[in-house]
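Issue 218. Parser rejects a valid record. Input:
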Amino acid sequence: MSQQGRGMSQSQDDPQQAEGQAPLDDLMLAMDVVDSLRRQQRLVEQELDSGAREAALKIRLQRVYAAQGIEVSDAVLDEGVRALRDDRFVYQPPAPSFAVTLARLYVSRNRWGKWLLGAWLALLLLVGAWILLVVMPNQVLPNTLKARHAEVRELAGSERVNAQADQLLAAARQALDQGETGLARDLLTQLEQLRDQLAVGYQIRVVNRPGVRSGVWRIPEANPEARNYYLVVEAIDAGGRRVAVPVRSEETGETKRVERWGLRVDRATFERVAADKGDDGIIQDDLLGAKAPGELEPRYSVPSSGAAITDW
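Output the parser choked on:
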């Protein structure tokens, strides 16, 4: 404040500068007076009730400025008091309007902009994922169906398998024509499973490992006097690896892909294998059948209908 006061005094010493700058200096002083009045709000409330008190307030302010080396005229003090009463030099927010709303949004962009950007990026990711995972696969679905059908026919070793593949393809195309994309995809899955089943070849051998049962028997609910005999078997490919194959349980009607299942055999075969294992703990003749590539069902070397169970 003291530097301001010295600058103002210099302008008063120079007539030319005083003539051009005095109004601005007076305005700045008036603004400073208003600021001082506000800082002494309690004093203002007490002193501005009457003209006498207003005069006393002016004297107090003159003393405050004089202590800082600033000379303030009565005109400046009067202007400051009037400005305080008229709420001049006080920021008045603009009236609500569309332009004001836009301006406030722009000023606060650092606060909400990152959320808007995040939401926009999330929307782009969702749209991209939908196009990548739904739209594009649906567009290529007809060609995929055609390709899988051709693969099945190439592997098939019988007209019966070809006819099954043709039926699946025709049903899938009809589903696409009717807008049932989900059903068409299910039929595509069946074609792929058929292809995989045709491609693999394996032998069916009785499980012969410590801790694993080699056979079980069941009493059917429909005939408590009878027994159903099952040998626990597994599919072994040409490399000696176990293969998971689809097996339908005759007890539940459910088809599962399993590496081990119970193959139903007659009593004589069951007892022969049991005696073979009981001899020295090793089943010598464990081969029960084989499935060749291009075939859907295995050919058995023992009496068996192929009926099976998957749990025991």
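Fixed in the parser; the record now loads. Strands lie at 202-206, 215-218, 228-236, 242-243, 245-248, 255-258, 260-265, 287-291, 299-300, 308-309.
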